[in-house]
From TrEMBL:
This is Anoctamin. Residues 195-551 form the Anoctamin transmembrane domain. The lineage of its organism: Eukaryota, Metazoa, Chordata, Craniata, Vertebrata. It is a multi-pass membrane protein. The chain crosses the membrane at residues 205-232, 238-256, 309-332, 352-372, 395-416, 428-450, 496-519. It is found in: Membrane. It comes from the Eukaryota. Signal peptide: none annotated. GO terms for molecular function: chloride channel activity. One of its GO terms (cellular component) is plasma membrane. Keywords: Membrane, Transmembrane, Transmembrane helix.
Length: 555
């Protein structure tokens, strides 16, 4: 592999653009020249040995660069990242360039062996591992310090010299995927393998879980329809359905573990070796030496981090929980007022007023959840966790604790303190319907409408330019660079987690909850597909062997 990487690619070689780098408009020329040279340098000289060229557009676009790689370079990169591919005999093995003929789908020189998403992942991996050697700072920026082993890309991003790095869409492949996924009206499963091939394992697993969860809800939905029309005062019915819920919730999670293992083995990520986890970009501290790697990197006292967690984060979470309970009690005061008003007026209008407190409370819950999540992100970043996995675990824990109390506390209070089954059914139905409508509007419909308007303005702007290069590519880059960045599956899994809680905990008193959950998941499939294809930038593919921390939280 080293011999292959020592052969430089011709600097004037035409290549397929895979990744876009956008620098700040005031970036100095010496910085640009240094970065381009580092990306094109040989691996033995500390470079990436990738291909890079400017977009070659008017002055306002002179800070946009296109990155790609030769076929051999990307294949050697696939070996470096430990990409697992299927062999001719059906087994799954880490890719070795020297044994390339043993692998299925290898044709001639292997130009089509890797998918576009895999090539983009390899380029991102190489850029992330572009490290400083002897440089003390970024050329032209004396305050942007470097030290041996420091990631250059992360320093450029934290110094706000580099605005963004994103992978380009494959317009033809995306068009085919959109048709198979959500434009073609049919009763069929989602094209999970095609989704995974285009967007990566993380999103493939998410949409696979969403589809599986929807199918798993079907027995609950079908059983809930006749069960709903039984005598509601029969408390034995609650016990029977609650027992069924308990068995159902346990079985579907165990079955999913097997199904996800089957999928990830077929995709090659189940046996992928876990890479050494680098410090996250936002981690800061005093420069020291990592005792494991021997490299210089920031070091931060774990005692200081624990003090921040227990003296600031924990009191903040407790105060937020108190606020959620306080808002809940205000809701019950409004419920009592609405009931009293209806008993006094006995009119159609007063009957509708009965639903107003529940609707308002459902809206307030959504608003509080979003505000708290923003505060939790800021607080978890301030705790200064070294690893991304640790950061995610603390963030998920904070958000889950608040969401569970904020969403479920009123239902438990109605069920076990007030013992009002009628009010419990009304509150649960209102929470489910209102939250589903709000989420679909805020997460998909509104962003799609805004993005559509933005695209029209960008296309008019590009047409007015004096374009010397491929017009369609220039238009594509301008449209995609202004798209929102997809922040991951956190919010999507959180929504499914809460929905699972509503169904497994409370559908025994309101069996129609499973039906509402099925309807929500079906619309979620289409709305999520729409926003991934039309609203957000294409995310970098990330190898995943499971749905991560959410599996543990569900069990």
């Amino acid at each position: 592999m080293k011999r292959g990487l020592s052969v430089p690619d011709p600097p004037d070689l035409e290549f397929r653009p895979l990744v876009v780098i956008e620098l700040a408009k005031d970036t100095k020329e010496e910085t640009k020249e240094w970065l381009v040279k580092k990306i094109m340098d040989k691996k033995k000289d500390g470079g990436c040995q990738l291909l890079i060229k400017p977009l070659a557009m008017p002055k306002e676009d002179e800070n946009i660069y296109l990155v790609g790689g030769s076929t051999k370079r990307l294949l050697l990169g696939a070996e470096a990242v430990g990409l697992v591919k299927e062999c001719i005999d059906g087994s799954m093995k880490p890719f070795l360039y020297s044994n390339h003929k043993e692998y299925k789908d290898w044709i001639e020189d292997g130009e089509t062996f890797l998918s576009m998403a895999e090539c983009q992942y390899i380029i991102k991996y190489e850029l992330d591992n572009l490290r400083s050697r002897e440089e003390k700072n970024i050329p032209g920026y004396s305050n942007s310090k470097l030290y041996p082993g420091k990631s250059i890309l992360r320093r450029l991003q934290t110094s706000r010299i580099m605005i963004q790095v994103f992978p380009l869409h494959d317009k033809e492949e995306l068009k085919r995927l959109r048709y198979q996924w959500y434009l073609k009206v049919r009763l069929d499963f989602q094209p999970i393998d095609q989704i995974r091939n285009y967007f990566g394992d993380t999103l493939g697993l998410y949409f696979g879980f969403l589809e599986y969860f929807t199918m798993a809800l079907m027995p609950m939905a079908f059983l809930g329809i006749p069960y709903y029309f039984f005598a509601w005062e029969d408390y034995d019915k609650y016990v029977i359905f609650a027992t069924f819920n308990l068995v159902w919730s346990t079985v579907i999670l165990e079955v999913w573990k097997r199904l996800s293992s089957t999928m990830t083995y077929r995709w090659g990520t189940l046996i992928t070796k876990r890479q050494f986890e680098e410090p996250r970009p936002g981690f800061h501290g005093v420069l020291g030496v990592n005792p494991v790697t021997g490299r210089k990197e920031p070091v931060y006292s774990s005692l200081k981090r624990q003090l921040r967690i227990y003296l600031v984060s924990v009191p903040f979470v407790c105060g937020s929980l108190y606020l959620a309970i306080y808002v809940m009690m205000i809701y019950f005061d409004l419920e009592n007022w609405a009931i009293a008003y209806n008993q006094e007026q006995q009119s159609t209008l007063s009957g509708l007023v009965l639903y107003v407190p529940s609707i308002l409370y459902a809206i307030v819950i959504e608003i509080m959840n979003r505000i708290y999540k923003f505060a939790a992100i800021v607080l978890t970043s301030w705790e200064n966790h070294r690893l991304e996995s640790s950061y995610q675990n603390h963030l998920v824990l904070k958000v889950l604790v608040f969401n569970i109390v904020n969403c479920f506390a009123s239902l438990f209070y109605i069920a076990f303190v007030m013992c009002d089954m009628k009010l419990l059914r009304q509150s649960l139905a209102t929470l489910l319907i209102t939250s589903q409508i709000l989420n679909q509007f805020v997460e998909s419909l509104l962003p799609y409408w805004l993005q559509k308007r933005s695209n029209q303005k960008i296309k008019k702007k590009v047409k007015a330019m004096n374009v010397d290069t491929d017009y369609t590519l220039v238009e594509q880059i301008h449209v995609e660079k202004d798209m929102d960045t997809y922040m991951g599956t956190f919010d999507d899994y959180l929504e499914l987690f809460l929905l699972f809680g509503y169904v497994s905990l409370f559908s025994c008193v309101y069996p129609l909850a499973a039906i509402f959950a099925v309807l929500n998941n079906i619309t979620e499939m289409y709305s999520d597909a729409l926003k991934m294809c039309r609203v957000f930038k294409r995310p970098f593919s990330q190898p995943s062997a499971s749905i991560g921390v959410w599996m543990g939280m569900s069990t």
